[in-house]
Amino acid sequence: MQLGLIGLGKMGGNMRERVRRAGHEVVGYDRNPEVADVASLAELVEKLSAPRVVWVMVPAGDPTRETVEQLGELLSPGDVVVDGGNSKFTDDKLHADHLAPKGIGYVDCGVSGGIWGLQNGYALMVGGSDEDVAKVQPVFDALKPEGEFGFIHAGGVGAGHYTKMVHNGIEYGIMQAYAEGYELLSKSEIVDDVPGTIKSWRKGTVIQSWLLDLLDRALDEDPTLAKIAAYSADSGEGRWTVDEAVRLAVPLPAISASLFARFASRQDDSPTMKAVAALRKQFGGHAVKAE
């Protein structure tokens, strides 16, 4: 089948290649003309035969919203727009409602796989109607890993990005646990080989995972992580997961703590911990460290 793909960055470019390797035709557009197949969204739409499937792989928020609105003016009834970026699930209904009066379908797809997806395949979490998902299914089959796992039609519009949001919240918690274990090992007086310990856990243990493999890879490159600053950004999904936990009164202590730990990483000198130190001195006479 044919696919229009908008956004050919690290993930989008690899996704174009994986779909092409599966025998499908991909017409790609990017603001960078060096990687684009066409010069404009209008030209991309012109090169596709109806019913068209156009996959949007651009940053969440205004860039995605503007792209969907432009496609609404270019596409025809029966076409489908797929948002494969990290949009918030509440945006999906807005996008679908914008396209529906024009007869254009909308599918949201949470994509996991990062820079390794070209080789390993991408885990896909999809929301939308059965009819619209069926139009995109050959592309989903090309992108997903081989075998029975790695794809779910999770529900109606918004379910794909909601599922991906929870996936990323879990990812926050797992990464935090590995990182805390790494720090404890590195501070121990009796463990001599911290990188080797992490490596030994990769097989035969209940905590083996791809994330653990990647931590081992990072330690192979920099055994003490000396070249990496102790600063960790968050791209939004962790916050949205915690917001949903509050809305639904679901306790998420591990995921919430991992999100707040990222906030703490951005403080060179934490006012909170200054207050804690001051209180300890006031009530217990505990020593404080001078600035």
Architecture overview:
One of its GO terms (biological process) is D-gluconate metabolic process. Residues 160-287 form the 6-phosphogluconate dehydrogenase C-terminal domain. Belongs to the HIBADH-related family. Belongs to the 6-phosphogluconate dehydrogenase family. One of its GO terms (molecular function) is phosphogluconate dehydrogenase (decarboxylating) activity. With 291 residues, the chain is an alpha/beta fold. The chain has helices at 10-21, 41-46, 62-74, 89-99, 117-120, 130-143, 159-187, 194-200, 210-221, 237-248, 253-264, 271-284, and strands spanning 2-6, 25-29, 53-56, 80-83, 105-112, 123-127, 151-155. It folds into 2 domains: 2-157, 3-Layer(aba) Sandwich (Rossmann fold), CATH 3.40.50; 165-275, Orthogonal Bundle (N-(1-d-carboxylethyl)-l-norvaline Dehydrogenase, domain 2), CATH 1.10.1040. It has a 7-stranded mixed β-sheet, sandwiched between helices. It is built from 12 helices and 7 strands. The model has no long low-confidence stretch (mean pLDDT 93). The termini are far apart. Helices cover 50% and strands 12% of the residues.
